[in-house]
Automatic annotation (TrEMBL):
Biological process annotations from GO: pyridine nucleotide biosynthetic process
UniProt pathway annotation: Cofactor biosynthesis; nicotinate biosynthesis; nicotinate from nicotinamide: step 1/1
CDD domains, per the entry: nicotinamidase
Database matches in PANTHER family: LD05707P (PTHR11080:SF2), PYRAZINAMIDASE/NICOTINAMIDASE (PTHR11080)
Positions of the Isochorismatase-like domain: 14-212
Keyword set includes NAD: no
Pfam families named in the record: Isochorismatase
Single annotated GO MF: metal ion binding
Name this protein carries in UniProt: Nicotinamidase
Family of the protein in this entry: Belongs to the isochorismatase family.
EC number(s) given by UniProt: 3.5.1.19
Keywords linked to the UniProt accession: Hydrolase, Metal-binding, Pyridine nucleotide biosynthesis
């Protein structure tokens, strides 16, 4: 256990936040993250250590503003400016009700109490499980966790440099002790996004650990 780890996974005040382990982020998916599928057994083992588990699902309407297909003349991975700020454009992914939006079938955290869907507003993206990209609209997750007495969040899943990082930064901003279990995440790494994410996370006080440092 590292000196900074003041909450064990099994503590009722700890929660594991499993981000976007959906087919569209797996190899062969619409927005594939390399080796994303290899995380499933590790996340299953970690999940078994926690009494509190929350799973997120990126869950977009067909005409979502983050899709390049919603913007004439734009291609995936272009960046545009929206009223709420810069937005990377993505291939259509995690469309509500499609196979690509489903959680990986081998993800086995049956005791998870909450599956939180995000990115449901057609006009606002949400990498974060806590606050949408307008930086104002709340998903309600902070309130849910706080009302259950949870003060510490451990984040895993996809993608490290987007939804994992934004969720961890917002968890920290909402006052939670926040860790990223680095070997239980994989990154997209677009234009240096992974380096930027680690710098922002460190500056915000999010602690990077490896799964081997966790004991139940
Ligand atoms: C994600 C890009 C777009 C993610 C979701 O889960 O990291 N990335 N939508
Ligand atoms: Zn998305």
């Amino acid at each position: 256990m590292t000196a900074s780890l003041n909450r064990l996974p099994s503590d009722p005040r700890s929660a594991l936040l499993v981000i976007d382990m959906q087919y569209d982020f797996m190899p062969g998916g619409a927005l594939a993250v390399a080796s994303g599928d290899t995380l499933v057994p590790l996340i299953n083992r970690l999940g078994a250590q926690f009494c509190n588990v929350v799973i997120t699902q990126d869950w977009h309407p067909v005409d979502h503003i983050s899709f390049a297909s919603s913007h004439a003349g734009r291609a995936p991975f272009d960046s545009i400016t929206l009223p709420y700020g810069p937005q990377t454009l993505w291939p259509d992914h995690c469309v509500q009700g499609t196979h690509g939006a489903q959680l990986h079938a081998d993800l086995d955290v049956a005791h998870a109490q909450l599956i939180l869907r995000k990115g449901c507003n057609a006009g606002i993206d949400s990498y974060s499980a806590f606050v949408e990209a307008d930086r104002t609209t709340q998903t309600g997750l902070a309130g849910y966790l706080k009302e259950r007495g949870i003060d510490s969040v451990f984040v895993v899943g996809l993608a490290l440099d987007f939804c994992v990082a934004w969720s961890a930064l917002d968890a920290r901003a909402a006052g939670f002790n926040t860790w990223i279990i680095a070997d239980a995440c994989k990154a997209i790494d677009l234009n240096g996004s992974l380096d930027t994410a680690w710098k922002d996370l460190a500056a915000a006080g999010v602690v990077r650990i490896d799964s081997a440092e966790l004991t139940a």
